Amino acid sequence: MTTVTDRPTEAPLAVPSRKRSRAFGFNSVSPREKVVRYILLVFVLLITIGPFLWQLSTSLKGSGEDIYTRIPRLLPAQPTFSHYKEVTDTIPVLDYARNSLVVAVLVVGGNVIGASLAGFAISRLQFRGRKIVLGLFLATLVLPGEVTIISQYVTVREFGLANTLLGVALPGMIGALNVLLMYNAFRALPLEVDQAAIVDGANAWQRFVYIGLPSVRGTISVIAIFAFIGAWDDFLWPLIVLTDPNKYTLTVGLQYLSGTFSNNPRLIAAGTMIAFIPIVIVFATLQRFFFKGVEEGAVKG
Amino acid sequence: MRSNRWFTPWVLVIPALTWLLVFNLWPSINTVILSFTNARPIGGGHFVGLKNFETLLHDEQLRWALLNSVIYMVVCLPFLTVLPLLLAVLVEKKLPGITFFRTAFYTPVVASAVVVALIWQWILDDRGLVNGLAEKLGVISGPLPFLSDQWLLLLSAISLTVWKGLGYYMIIYLAALGNVGRELHEAAAVDGASPLRRFIHVTIPGVRGTMILISILISVSALRVFSELFILSGGKGGPGGRDNSVVMLIQQYSQGFEGNLGYASALSIVLFFVTVVPMLVLARLNRRGAEA
To answer: Which among A153, A259, A276 has CB closest to B254?
Structure first.
């Protein structure tokens, strides 16, 4: 499947014809273009990564170091981890991180299982009402989540789950969008494969496990990565559901932290890095699957 | 086929369908019901008729919030439809190390809006990086009140949203660029079209549909803005609460003894209609473009 879409990733080293230099850009990059491209890439890199480095640097600067100098220094003169220790001592940041992790794992699990089951059924199985079910999932996309957030809170409260981590996780555990993404991914499979399996006596469950799932791994990883990041980063919903500071997730806890230490940027910086670094590690480790999944989705869609 | 019993599909669909009904469809209906009550965050509340909607009409905070939303949308749209496309073109070519750049450009998207806003709060602080550098360079004599002036605060939040959104829309464009025919590009190049002309006459028409989709996404998310403004203003919505967004108002009414879930629901209905408008406009635009 991928062979069709794979572009020649590297320029053939054969001598490029000088006469067709205008078409140079396609199979190879002229040295000058290369330099320009890298300059631009580094420029954008500074804009996108710079603020994070600045915050990291602030978090490592010693208490005696002037962080308000007019000539900003990126490298700390007296590097120290003491602010990280101070933050974790004063505010249960590590508990918040654990709470965020619990919510994120529930959300990822729910979406991977729930969305792939439903996506498979809607795209590969015939049943009465299939179109209506699909329509219902599509219809919810029009509705921004913030519109229903208050009555979602009322629902969660009626379940007795207000101020609990389960209450934070529950509504996001099967997202309509994820069901549609899985629906799309499963649909890309040729129907003949299914028919052959049916002739061989495979039931729906076997077709799901042995034929469906292996071919949609890209989309599943995209869903899992997005669900994890979404749950870890979410702020508004946990802010509404949680009232007890012991149950805060990391984002809500950070906001609480910034109110408490608004006069000490070093501590806030350390707190933000504790929330930021894990998600960057997760993403950097999985980005391979992510970008592959995105390309796969684009080709199929 | 005998192994495929009639209820099998339903067994697979029911978990997702339950979630849809309980956490999407029912809350949509319930929002309308709640908007006619004075329900409290602690529970209870009774029918009050159209009172919430009458209050909406005279709510000065809501007027500011709507104005802010419109400004947010109008400023974000051009930046976020164009800059990410340029970025996508920049990272499209498979140069050595390009994966690193792609991942790095995506980092602001992965970071929580809370983390990002706290970082920017420190950068834009009276004694922060931007004011420090500007003073050093002699551009300004005193610090610019990025976080305490009504309009500068709004502008700061908008820049933050644009900065954080770049990578996200870049990826969507990147996927779309993969579908723009290479043959067209090559043909144009052979005919002697400069890279700029090819960008305008081949790339842009090729991603037109994606551009409209992205415009819808940008408009809707600009109208839904919450975390950036909330954190940058320290949860207060700027001077006199004039930097609130509609979602910030909804959140404010969701808690405490002063809270009023009924009124928050009425605000939610306003939010719904506000976000539907750009969707309808752009969807129409898309259809007309397809016919042309």
So the answer is: A153
What is the Cβ-side half-sphere exposure of residue A124, based on CA atoms within 13 angstroms? 35
Helix axes B60-92, B261-291, angle to 10 degrees: 40
Residues of B with Cβ-Cβ distance to A205 under 8 angstroms:
8
Of B189, B254, B264, the CB nearest to A22: B189
| CATH for the A85-297 domain, from 1.10.3720.10, 3.40.50.720, 3.40.50.280, 1.20.1250.20 | 1.10.3720.10
CA dihedral (A81, A85, A86, A90) in degrees, to 10, reads 160
Nearest alpha carbon to residue A244 among A161, A169, A152: A161
Given an 8 Å threshold on Cβ–Cβ distance, is A147 in contact with B272?
yes
* B253 interaction partners in chain A (CB closer than 8 Å): 150
> Which of A147, A207, A243, A256 best probes binding to B when mutated, by most B CB atoms within 10 angstroms?
A147
**What confidence category does residue A73 fall into, taking pLDDT thresholds of 50, 70 and 90?**
confident
Chain B residues within an 8 Å CB radius of A272: 115, 118-119
Considering only CB atoms, B15 lies closest to which of A49, A174, A284, namely: A174
Long-range contacts from A128-134, C-beta under 8 angstroms, 24+ separation: A130/B9, A133/B13, A133/B17, A134/A183
Return the structure tokens found at B177.
């660029």
Which pLDDT tens digit goes with each residue over B219-253? 999 999 999 999 999 888 889 889 999 999 999 99
Distances (CA, A) of B258 to A161, A239, A248, A283, B39: 22, 17, 22, 41, 11
Asked whether residue B110 carries a pLDDT value surpassing 50, the answer given is yes
ipTM score assigned to the predicted complex: 0.90
What is the number of other CB atoms lying within 10 angstroms of the CB of residue A194?
A: 17
If you average pLDDT over residues A273-290, what whole number do you get?
89
On the question of pLDDT at B216 being above 80, the answer is: yes
Domain count, chain B: 1
Where are chain A's structural domains?
32-79, 85-297
